[in-house]
Amino acid sequence: MLEKPDISDAAIIDCLRAAYTIDAADLRFLPLGADRSTAVYRAETRWFVKLRRGEFDVNSVIVPHLLHGQGMTQVIAPVKSAAGDLWTPLGDFKLILFPFVEGHGGWDADLSAPQWVEFGRALKRLHTAHFPPDLLQTLPQEDYSPRWRERTHEFQALAAAGGYRDAIAADLARFLVSKRPEIDALIAHAERLASVVQARALPSIVCHADIHVGNLLHTPDSLYIVDWDTLTFAPKERDLMFVGGGLGGGAFPPEEEIRLFYQGYGQTEIDADALAYYRCERIVQDIVAYCEAILLAEGDSADRSAGVRQLKSQFEPGNVVEIALASTTSPPRP
Hints:
10 strands, alpha+beta, three-stranded antiparallel β-sheet, five-stranded antiparallel β-sheet
């Protein structure tokens, strides 16, 4: 969220005092991230405060807590409240508290070669971690649903109808119309591959499901996986599709990203069709998310303007759309 939410600093400070016995006279909003449901703050110099509005999966705090407890140092565990809870309610929000780590996100500073290797090690630890069976049953389950593809068709029709008086929405609508062939191709490939991959019944594991470099925090000595709001029980390709998929920040060509990552992750069999499916489907989901935030709203806001820029960038040469469509030409698994 790039703009402060409609909650006062005093309310957050009071909540920190009541729930965590922390006196936070210095509270600063941090304009970070593309998720309009999440706002983050720095409290004093020690604490990172996350406010989550709307849908909230408790596993987004339970899983990093469990992983950290199992010795996974690449995870920043949420701080327990005085009552022993991993989050606390605050009006329309859930407040989660973390230790503040001074570092860089992967969009702001490129990962080094050793950090790409460490990224591979960290994701392998997640993919091989043990979780209680009852927790696995409560995670969102991969179902290859067509809902995002159908919703994208609906927004394409809205965009083609035009008539937007809001300048930001009109800009996005024109762009969607201009990219109709590419979007239709993404939808068609995702639709075809969903049936192919679902029929294979690939084994599922706990996936972060949004593990691009923007959700990596790194310091000279450490690397952390952050933002666990999208956890999904799915085939490992749900996470692995990000590596070499155009979401690595650009420090290395995709082939080198892949080599370095798997140096840390280790050898594994990858289903090329599943990788292609997730790359196409992710972009389709992004289109829906941006359309909901921009076409169904009005107003000159930083979040909406940034959303249009971010979606347009995905269609630039060499970016994620081009890579996703190229992935669909990989030969199917025998």
